């Protein structure tokens, strides 16, 4: 657990981090039960913890089913567009049940075709752009191609893939009260700034905010043509 808690290692082997975390958590519960069963108070606290986890898991899966299963509509589809943005990939996700997207939101994306241990587990990505068309809601994600899930995505360019989404999650920050907004980003971090820029521009055009100037400082480590 300590090995995978290091941020650099967790980013490089994200799937191993998820699977080992789940397995070790289950082993801890199994190891604790024989020791807590002889002491009534310890057993009660252990059962309460398991019960809270069970209730939260059921609520989570109900929300997951509500977001992904809609009668008369296909599942979500994820498509990696052909144009590369430096080391980034742009992924378009069409979701079956639209919602009002807000800046600061992110989703967990899973694509079963990419592998049992790789594609079935949800991977977090910031929503960098969104549009509503005849198909419903289309989300745009900026993804840095590394290893595992993102490497497999890089091998399926322009191929619509069945996907499942979990979310949205995240908190929105209100920048519309400021006349000047300055944003800083490094590399893929620009994905978190773009939704706020879009929201501020929409608010400016509808005269709903005070913001008049937006300044963005984006640092890139590599040059692109």
Helix content range of the residues, please?
Answer: 25-40%
Q: Report the β-strand fraction as a percent range.
A: 25-35%
Any idea what the radius of gyration is? Answer: 21 Å
User: Averaged pLDDT, please?
Assistant: 82
How would you describe the shape?
A: globular
Biggest β-sheet, characterized? 6 strands, antiparallel, barrel
Enumerate the spans where pLDDT stays under 50 for 5 or more consecutive residues: none
Measured distance between first and last alpha carbons? 41 Å
Structural class: alpha+beta
Order of helices and strands: HHHHEEEHEEHEEHE
Notable features of this structure?
225 residues; alpha+beta; two-stranded parallel ribbon; globular
Question: What report would you give on this structure?
Answer:
The protein is α+β, with helices and mostly antiparallel strands. The protein has helices at residues 2-5, 7-12, 14-36, 40-68, 116-119, 149-154, 190-205; strands at residues 76-80, 88-95, 106-110, 123-133, 136-144, 161-169, 180-186, 213-219. Strand 7, helix 7 and strand 8 form a beta-alpha-beta unit. The mean pLDDT is 82.
Helix-strand blueprint:
Blueprint (H helix, E strand, L loop, with lengths): L1 H4 L1 H6 L1 H23 L3 H29 L7 E5 L7 E8 L10 E5 L5 H4 L3 E11 L2 E9 L4 H6 L6 E9 L10 E7 L3 H16 L7 E7 L6
Parallel strand pairs: 7-8
Antiparallel strand pairs: 1-2, 1-6, 2-5, 3-4, 3-6, 4-5
Helix pairs in contact: 3-4
């Amino acid at each position: 657990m300590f090995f995978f808690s290091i941020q650099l290692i967790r980013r490089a082997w994200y799937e191993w981090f998820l699977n080992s975390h789940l397995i070790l958590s289950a082993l801890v519960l199994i190891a604790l039960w024989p020791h807590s069963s002889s002491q009534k108070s310890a057993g009660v606290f252990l059962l309460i913890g398991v019960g809270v986890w069970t209730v939260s898991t059921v609520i989570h899966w109900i929300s997951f089913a509500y977001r992904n299963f809609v009668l008369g509509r296909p599942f979500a589809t994820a498509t990696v567009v052909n144009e590369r943005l430096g080391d980034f990939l742009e992924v378009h996700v069409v979701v079956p049940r639209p919602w009002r997207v807000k800046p600061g939101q992110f989703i967990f994306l899973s694509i079963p075709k990419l592998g049992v241990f790789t594609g079935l587990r949800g991977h977090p990505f910031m929503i960098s752009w969104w549009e509503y068309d005849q198909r419903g809601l289309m989300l745009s994600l900026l993804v840095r191609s590394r290893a595992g899930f993102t490497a497999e995505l890089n091998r399926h360019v322009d191929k619509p893939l069945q996907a499942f989404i979990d979310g949205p999650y995240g908190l929105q920050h209100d920048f519309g009260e400021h006349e000047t907004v300055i944003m800083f980003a490094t590399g893929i971090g620009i994905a978190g700034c773009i939704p706020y820029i879009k929201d501020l521009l929409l608010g400016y055009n509808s005269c709903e905010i005070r913001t008049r100037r937006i300044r963005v400082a984006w640092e890139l480590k590599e040059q692109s043509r």
